[in-house]
# Entry
Amino acid sequence: MRMTGAEIIIKALRDQGVEIIFGYPGGAVLPIYDALFKQNDIRHILVRQEGGAVHAAEGYARSTGKVGCVLVTSGPGATNAVTGLTDALLDSIPIVCLTGQVPTHLIGNDAFQECDTTGITRPCTKHNWLVKTPDQLARVMHEAFHIAGSGRPGPVVIDIPKDVQLAEGDYVPPSMVEHPLYQPKTVGDEKAVQRAVELIADAERPLFYTGGGVINSGRRACETLQKLVKATGYPITSTLMGLGAYPSTDGQYLGMVGMHGSYESNLSMYNCDVMINIGARFDDRVTGKLSEFSPKSKKIHVDIDASSINKTVVVDVPIIGDAGTVLDQILKEWQAKGHRPDKEALSKWWSQINQWRARKSFSYKKSDKIIKPQYALERLRDLTRGHDTYFTTEVGQHQMWAAQFLELNEPHRWMTSGGLGTMGYGLPAAIGVQLAHPKSLVIDVAGEASILMNIQEMSTAVQHQLPVKVFIINNQWMGMVRQWQELIHGGRYSQSYTAALPDFVKLAEAFGGIGMRAETPAELDGVIKEMMKTDKPTIVDVCVDQKENCYPMIPGGRAHYEMILGDDQDISTATPDEGLVLV
Amino acid sequence: MNAPSPATQRHVFSVLVNDEPGVLARVIGLFSGRGYNIESLAVAIVDAERSLSRITVVSIGTPQILEQIEAQLNRIVPVRKVVDLTRQGATVEREMALVKVNGSGASRMEALKVAEAAHAKAKDASPEAFIFEITGTAGEIDNFINLMKPLGLIETVRSGVLGLARGNKTV
Ligand SMILES: Cc1ncc(C[n+]2csc(CCOP(=O)(O)OP(=O)(O)O)c2C)c(N)n1
Ligand SMILES: [Mg+2]
# Structure
């Protein structure tokens, strides 16, 4: 079938089941925008900056398990997308990003709005293509979806010169495109599974440590995980990216692990004798000081990406495969062998864990005069309980408090920038989530500094009538920066005060949304309830204690057992010299 | 280049890739982006019909890093196969160099003698200079160049190491 490159693109998107694409037009993509104009199957969401388009696609993808789609122009359109692409790469989010390019005969001439898009995005994508003839376009499009969505998901870029969009070529449907070069292994090696199950069965102080890989694997993987955790009776902790794969309200769940994770999960990591890592990557935020990371444990590591194995932590039983498939294999083997947990050892382990738990490491000093940020999140948690809610976050203290205090009992309901830590992620991501779940309550837990990084997307939310809620934990500081300055720079607050803040209520109104403010604990519940009822994009300015720091915390270069717990302790000496260079 | 510390090893990797635009940039970018060492690099098309290129790359690292290099190379989509030749077993390793040496004056005869002893062939001879072609292991080439230095070494170019597994094993 002959059609123009632009038509091929639209047809391929449709055949890939794409319903929504996030984008921003420009000279080098006008033919694609024209083809979009002439059809009704694919809805285009006009953002206000291309970075917002990628984060919105990430929110869409993460909350649905589908591939997110982006369309941007050449040059500045492509470079604006780079942060989002890098974010998606680090958090393994499937994105197909189409970029316009100057016509093929001008490539390399420093033409208007030319940039070396494939060169710039090579290190921040799973793969990318420059398509030089329309005949290649359909095949590349289908391959792009295959690569973005399978194996360890990630972003891909297709760079399409304008002449290729206008010229005619042949279309081929997805069914006629094979992918000989990319066929990730999903089934775990049976022998490795058997060895893993033996270790699991013989454990005396076991710990499940699960990450975003379980969520990427899908709902079924999460269900199998729950069955396995229940069958064993073992404790489980999660990374920031894995929250929701296992219900956070369940008794076997120890809370998040890592730098701002719970005391009990970090001490369990340090003291366990068998660690069962499923879909997590021993990130530095989790391991703390590497030489003292979980020194007494035998480690099982399930990951679909072979390069995650032994990258930072050398493990005893690596299993390369899809988290859900391997969990099925492990559960089956556990049942087939009729394994029972070692009751006596396990109850000893649990009583140890419960002692750590009793330390209540997320506790804070309550106040009835000033809104404590933790209190704001507790109220948000309690008042949204039972509602169909999705949370996104920005980056900073508020993000960590959200991870500590919110209840996440299902996968796909927690969208946060974990690997890259991108301020400005949360609002566009919430827009993507709201589009995928129009009836649900979608809340971006924000900081007043982060939200200003992509505040223009309020306009997108208003245009597309997306009633996202931005819940600003407004401490008037880049709180996380200030906290680190207290930790390692003698409290010299260099540039971390967010001066000249806008009036967020008026700002919301100026965009055509709704603005609200809570200044005292007494006002908070009413404002949250009001927020939950609005049918428009809403900003809630929660004025919180400006001095609060986020605890517990493992300072850079410290081991899990060296957590600091807040409690009025002098934190300025908590970081060892070798920790000063760490971020 | 840094001298290898005791814990590091030198490995030769064979990387079969689809011959397509940017593939070499992906491979090299991986090494620079992740801070891996490139000791030597050689690349050429080996099967035009199947558009197959073969890259031989020599790196130095700890066993953990060398394992990572193999795994990371395997993530690159147009990479069809990666073999750590050194880990796999005995290999034949060869490199070629062209070495330009001063050919005038007293050292002229001496240069020819050294070349003959090293089985290097004179590919160009003018009254002023020779170009010798030498093929051997990287160490043999180092030796040859060192011997030529006092005789008036002018310029050197090296192909980078090529390697194949011994016996009938293939990549
Ligand atoms: C794009 C970007 N720039 C800089 C940083 C570094 N950074 C991390 S947290 C933070 C402060 C965030 O302040 P705010 O949004 O007010 O959150 P708070 O910590 O106060 O809750 C900064 C600047 C970042 N993560 N992302
Ligand atoms: Mg703040």
Remarks:
- Residues 2-176 of chain A form a domain with the Rossmann fold fold (CATH 3.40.50.970).
